[in-house]
Please model this.
Amino acid sequence: MRLYPYLMSLLNNHTNIRCAVACAEDEAVLSAVIQAYKLNLIHPVLYGNQLEIDKILKDLKCLDHIEIINCESKENACQLAVQSISLGLNQLLMKGLVDTSIFLKAVLNKEWGIKDKPVLSHVCVATIPDHDKLYFISDSAMNILPDLMTKKAIIENAVGV
Model:
């Protein structure tokens, strides 16, 4: 991946961000995680079925030691990943291969969830092969018909990312 030098310098100032990946047992998810890891953008912590994750990592020829937290179910993986953010063990939460309803139930849990503002929004960071840009996509389906104050909160969240 080729990134503009300015973007790469910005990203390099935030290396070793601990990223909790809920339900990581998916080839596409792990491929993206490995790419970010090899660029030294994140330190991944994978939550999910350890046997499945190990198999996929082996298939992807990822021989690096990556921390895996074995979980008994998708609900358990989401719960533990969100709790790791709540406790400050990880700084970034990534949704793996899991229904959004299961993921959001953990995020919104009143006891240990991580919703700390009135508006919940998300930001996706993506690349396109052979393009020198990162693309930030926010709230593609989360906040339907937002009012002006909700739009402001969405923008503030995206700027933070």
User: Anything to note?
Assistant: The helical segments are 5-12, 27-38, 50-59, 74-86, 100-107, 148-160. The beta strands are 17-22, 42-48, 67-70, 92-95, 123-127, 134-138. Residues 22 and 73 are 11 Å apart (CA to CA). The first strand starts at residue 17 and ends at 22.
